[in-house]
Please model this.
Amino acid sequence: MSEEKDLNALQKSLAALDKRMQHIASEMERTHIAEYVDLLNRPISLIWRNLLAGAARGVGIAIGFTFFAATILYVLRILGALNLPIIGDYIADIVRIVQIQLEGKTY
Model:
């Protein structure tokens, strides 16, 4: 009887261990750990991917900044054309400072 209880307890323990191992295996597949390890084992591929990602980020930042700056300049042109007293003075000051800086003088 004691052997039967030990065998039953061992089977339950093995079943729980199997269930846990299946869970760990599915989590590893979900996180793509094998692809990550494979990438780490090929440093040239890792460098190439990082180079492409950096270039794409740089181009994205350049395009985004260009769009943002063009939008700001467009809004400033519209505000300058309205001849608003306070905002017009600020815009005139900004233009004057930029022109002085372009000439190489200090203001």
